[in-house]
Design a protein that fits this description.
Elements: E1 5-10, H1 15-26, E2 36-41, H2 47-60, E3 65-71, H3 74-78, E4 83-86, H4 98-119, E5 125-128, H5 133-142, E6 152-154, H6 157-171, E7 178-179, E8 183-184, E9 192-193, E10 199-200, E11 203-204, H7 211-223, H8 225-233, H9 239-254, E12 262-267, E13 279-287, E14 290-293, H10 301-323
Parallel strand pairs: 1-2, 1-4, 2-3, 4-5, 5-6
Antiparallel strand pairs: 7-10, 8-9, 10-11, 12-13, 13-14
Helix pairs in contact: 1-9, 4-5, 5-10, 6-7
The structure holds ligand NAX.
Ligand NAX binds near residues 14, 46, 133, 236 and 241.
């Protein structure tokens, strides 16, 4: 049988961690033939809670789970790791300005980037979930100069899945019938789900819905879904976020189906006018463990405006972390 793959999860004692770890250990992320060793990174006060989660993982007797390490030391957590899910982040507290938020997250993602650079396996794949995900990913990547930039990514898959689900409901089809979806830009209120290139039954989704629905219902519903979940559930999205992280890594490792693509936050090579180096949501395919930005899509004037607005926000965030000396 295959040797186990080391998977590091930060913020392991948090609510996304709780929804994520059991699915990884059961084989839903890397597949039924790949044993895993879990490395749980937490801050010191949360180590005990992480140990409780580890006890429950033991109690599941997952045949694919070959070991669990728990630590508050980033260097140890990322040593030899092949998959890093950076979930733990500093949430925006009351009265916190954007600069404070970015600085607090810089204090997390800079040392984690350095630890990945120092000790991760050669095939390391990094997914940043903790918000602001795109910019946190940029911070981590900037401190891992020996790791190819395309091994870093940011989670846009929850936004992508939310868009698939809303479109399927609207058109009365199954989510599996909605293909070629993209959510461009930042994982924030400015994100742009592109229904012009998305397809149902081989035709553009935009041709099958009113522009009014697209602008006034779909886009804000997807962008504000996180807030709607908090409103209803009294807690932020956790199982759906964990599911999106599983989907993201599963796709990255196993590839996209022929003719379709997905959304991931990946390093820009300048495609579609997105400044090089930003971590932006793009239409991507995956093959042999590598993302590739889908080229040559038609971007109409409406899409152009929306993409530019979200990308401008990513540029602002990059300027802010540059000003703070975080990259
Ligand atoms: P929780 O507050 O439940 O858990 C976060 C955990 O991270 C805590 O246990 C905390 O102790 C730990 N942590 C903090 N600093 C750490 C560090 N330096 N090293 C290791 N662990 C550390 O938050 P949860 O609901 O699990 O959400 C986690 C992150 O995901 C948040 O930043 C959240 O905003 C973000 N999200 C991102 C989404 C996306 O689509 N990209 C969607 C869901 C979610 O909102």
């Amino acid at each position: 049988s295959k040797p186990p793959v080391k998977v590091t999860v930060t913020g392991a004692a948090g609510q996304i961690g709780y929804a994520l770890l059991f699915r990884i250990a059961s084989g839903q992320m890397l597949g039924p033939d790949t044993p895993v060793t879990l490395s749980l990174l937490e801050i010191t006060p949360a180590l005990k809670a992480a140990e409780g989660t580890a006890m429950e993982l033991d109690d599941c007797a997952f045949p694919l789970l070959s070991g669990i390490e728990i630590t508050d030391n980033a260097t140890a957590a990322f040593d030899g790791t092949s998959i890093a899910l950076l979930v733990g982040a500093r949430p925006r507290g009351p009265g916190m300005e954007r600069g404070d938020l970015l600085a607090a997250n810089g204090g997390i993602f800079k040392p984690q980037g350095q630890a990945i650079n120092a000790g991760a396996a050669d095939d390391i794949k990094v997914l940043v979930v903790g918000n602001p995900a795109n910019t946190n990913s940029l911070i981590a990547r900037s401190h891992a100069p020996d790791v190819p930039a395309d091994r870093f990514s940011a989670m846009m898959r929850l936004d992508h899945n939310r868009a698939l689900s809303q479109v399927a409901k609207k058109l009365g089809v199954s989510v599996a019938d909605v293909t070629n979806m993209t959510v461009w830009g930042n994982h924030s209120a400015t994100q742009y789900p592109d229904l012009f290139n998305a397809r149902v039954g081989g035709r553009s989704v935009a041709e099958q819905v009113e522009q009014e629905w697209l602008e006034s219902t779909l886009i804000p519903t997807v962008a504000k879904r996180g807030a709607a979940i908090i409103d209803a559930r009294g807690a932020s999205s956790a199982a759906s976020a964990a599911n999106a992280a599983i989907d993201h890594i599963h796709t990255w490792v196993h590839g996209t189906p022929e003719g379709d693509w997905t959304t991931a936050g990946v390093v820009s090579d300048g495609s579609y006018g997105v400044p090089e180096g930003l971590m932006s949501g793009f239409p991507v395919t995956a093959e042999n463990g590598q993302w590739k930005i889908v080229q040559g899509l038609d971007i109409n004037e409406f899409s152009r405006g929306r993409i530019d607005k979200s990308v401008a926000e990513l540029v602002d965030e990059r300027d802010a972390i540059t000003g703070l000396g975080l990259i």
